[in-house]
């Protein structure tokens, strides 16, 4: 409520005091700059200080900031205060959302998430309506906002709970996210631009149009209601039809509403103006969750949380641009230019959506995630019922005791864990998993320290740590490999132990399949390439989306096992049961995509060309119908050596020699033509 009131009071106060439109836009944009920083560093602050203290601190700073608006009217001071407010609010949202996530479970997360979203929109709506209580230039509204922000501390400070401990989530590179879902990234960025511009500059527009305080309050409150309610029908439609089609229709509707609204306002048709505003805000608010849903449709559940951070950053970047760039248009062309700006932004995004529709097939309905009403808050994905539950579902009394002691004396964490584990040997795995979850930066050290202190539970400890902190699994595997060798086992027992290690570690940390499989493969004796192949197959089964990367990496490190590894990959590809999924994956690539077997052959030819013939031969022997595609892929990677490779392959497989020769000739001719076109 306090934030909702400030969002409407600030631009009106600046307008009444004579501030230029671009100055207002700049100051309102700076809030999202603060959100950007808060989203990046909020987790660190919470982990270091604790939920209750950081919540109270941020709420207190936000309260003081609200009061300072009434004391200084300098644009520089207000700009700095907006940055501070953005940082505080991002951290507050993060603290609330992690607290709710920790307090919920897999069964009730959907209900909790829905209640949270409703409370957020309801609070913003009531806050906007409070503008009618006093004139914007009166300091009393800032005092009201400060009082509401201060009251937010009470439930937290009076809680008997010490608050959850926050762990790190996996991150995803922006380049990887763009490759998975360009529309998702561009969509949330453009959503930040349009929502940031509309919600922050509409108040200025209303003031310029001569609306009364009550009318502006009603106008802005209605936009919040629209932003909440329209997500339900639009979301339902996006679950039934291609999301991109629904997004295009949503953008068309938003653009039409943006064109109609200023005409209604000029005619003083307030009810029609509010109606248009409800439709406009509702459709604009749908862009973010639809873009998010499109991105999630193309990810595994464990990737969603990792991607959410980058998507929020993209939204915040858009939010930082939207109000200021819209204000420049309004200053140059008049207040009505706000809606022209929205139309241009919507049509720009629509053009990109249509382009992506031409480039990519839709996600099959059976593979789609369900649409979820969602606002762009830093950690809402932690509560999102579509994502894998990230909290510690169950911790033992011993683990809770260890965490409480560690919180009081963090420098003694490792000794505390060992002491508690020695007194509670049955809970050692839970203690290790809990400690790794809440102290991810020390996860590897925790695993090594505990496993050395309690060697009888070594494997269980390491696997549980890897499950809680997958990023530490590579170091843990290296340690375990050394431990296996130190036991002076015979080669066969050593290899069996390594295979078992791979299987158990990948069950806990499938995202680290490439690193784990590569490290373990290096430890297998050269005389046992079949063991390396088994490791590659285990990794492929645990993380099928990584099997090409895994196999290529293993062949680079253990080239003598290339034939066996290639056979394992071919078996994994052939055994994939979901034909619809395979069709979809093929459609996801560009028009030159030749299939997984060809992709694998090309990767090997590029990374380890000396193994290219052996690997390609195995792949074609497994699936003769892929012979042409494999050869074409080889020709694209290395046209100089492909003829030599095809000759060797033809000797081993004369039955497909003609097909391979034709594919090579066609591919080389196409390459020559393309080269000539580039020259001209």
Q: What does this molecule look like?
A:
Helix content is 76%, strand content 0%. The protein is built from 33 helices and no strands. It has helices at 2-16, 21-49, 51-69, 75-103, 109-129, 140-151, 153-157, 174-180, 182-208, 213-229, 231-240, 243-266, 270-297, 301-333, 337-359, 380-383, 397-408, 413-423, 428-438, 443-453, 458-468, 473-486, 491-508, 513-523, 529-542, 547-557, 562-575, 579-588, 596-607, 612-622, 627-637, 642-652, 657-679. The longest helix has 33 residues, at 301-333.
Describe the structure concisely for a colleague.
This protein is mainly α and 680 residues long.
> Averaging pLDDT over every residue, what do you get?
79
Main sheet, how many strands, which sense, barrel?
Answer: none
CATH topology title of the largest domain: Growth Hormone, Chain: A
Rough shape? flat
Q: What fraction, in percent, of the residue positions are helical?
A: over 70%
Strand-helix topology:
Blueprint: H1 2-16, H2 21-49, H3 51-69, H4 75-103, H5 109-129, H6 140-151, H7 153-157, H8 174-180, H9 182-208, H10 213-229, H11 231-240, H12 243-266, H13 270-297, H14 301-333, H15 337-359, H16 380-383, H17 397-408, H18 413-423, H19 428-438, H20 443-453, H21 458-468, H22 473-486, H23 491-508, H24 513-523, H25 529-542, H26 547-557, H27 562-575, H28 579-588, H29 596-607, H30 612-622, H31 627-637, H32 642-652, H33 657-679
Helix pairs in contact: 1-2, 1-5, 1-6, 1-9, 2-3, 2-4, 2-9, 2-14, 3-4, 3-6, 5-10, 8-9, 9-10, 9-13, 9-14, 9-15, 10-13, 11-12, 11-13, 12-13, 12-15, 13-14, 14-15, 17-18, 17-19, 18-19, 18-20, 19-20, 19-21, 20-21, 21-22, 21-23, 22-23, 22-24, 23-24, 23-25, 24-25, 24-26, 25-26, 25-27, ...
